[in-house]
Design a protein that fits this description.
The protein has 99 residues and is of the alpha+beta class. 25% of the residues lie in helices and 26% in strands. It is built from two helices and six strands; from the N terminus they run H-H-E-E-E-E-E-E. A four-stranded antiparallel sheet has the order 3-4-5-6, with no helix packed on it. The longest helix is centred in the N-terminal third of the chain and has 20 residues. The protein starts with a helix and ends with a strand.
């Protein structure tokens, strides 16, 4: 009876070791290859060219970027240090302290 219990423990330990060894220790190689420097997608006016067909992550480190949305004559913009809201006759800029 003890032999069977010992055998179950050995099998369980082997399965756990197999599962742990199959977990990747770093990000998959394809994820790194899909990160593109945003400079390669810039138009002459500084906007991003969205007609290239690129799909994936952009590396924005070192770039001063603004995420902007427009709708019905209103605009919203977001940067790491501020937020912007504007309409046809009013504008608001909110700076984030210690950002």
């Amino acid at each position: 009876m003890h032999t069977f219990k010992y055998f179950r423990v050995v099998i369980l330990a082997a399965l756990v070791a197999l599962l742990i060894s199959s977990i990747p220790s770093t990000a998959p190689a394809f994820a790194q290859s899909q990160i593109l420097d945003v400079g390669s997608l810039l138009n002459p006016d500084g906007t991003i060219n969205t007609t290239t067909g690129f799909s994936g992550a952009l590396d924005l480190r070192g770039w001063n970027t603004t995420l902007a949305f427009t709708s019905g004559g209103h605009a919203l913009g977001f940067r790491a240090d501020a937020m912007f809201a504007a309409s046809r006759d009013h504008a608001l800029r909110v700076e984030f302290v210690n950002a």
